[in-house]
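[Archive record]
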Amino acid sequence: MPHPVMFDDADPLLVRLRSLCLALPEVEERISHGRPTWRVAKQFAQYGGGERTPDGHVRHDHALLFVPEPGDVGALDQDERFFLPAYVGPFGWRAVDLDRDDVGWDEVAELVDASYRQVANRRQLAALAEL
């Protein structure tokens, strides 16, 4: 049984995130588990997810899930804006809600770029350097 779609294509946060992700070399968008994801050889970004808390599962429908640079994980974990997303958090992923007032799009673009660089191959990275 397929997952239900858990996003709206007209969501302005999704539209903006989608444009950042698809501007990177060789990126394709796929729907996985009812959510938009972006990948090259591997997935590097997802829109929407959840968080496990002591009280249960909390949905974050407007979150960016991403693969941070290893050296940034400690700082992200100390920043209250970021959280460990359910399912992929144990594999190094982090997340941030894009509808927060204290999250800017320059920062989001940097997170997307860094996440892309974690999974892209040499050819894709070379193409990125030419942009």
About this structure: The longest strand covers residues 43-53.
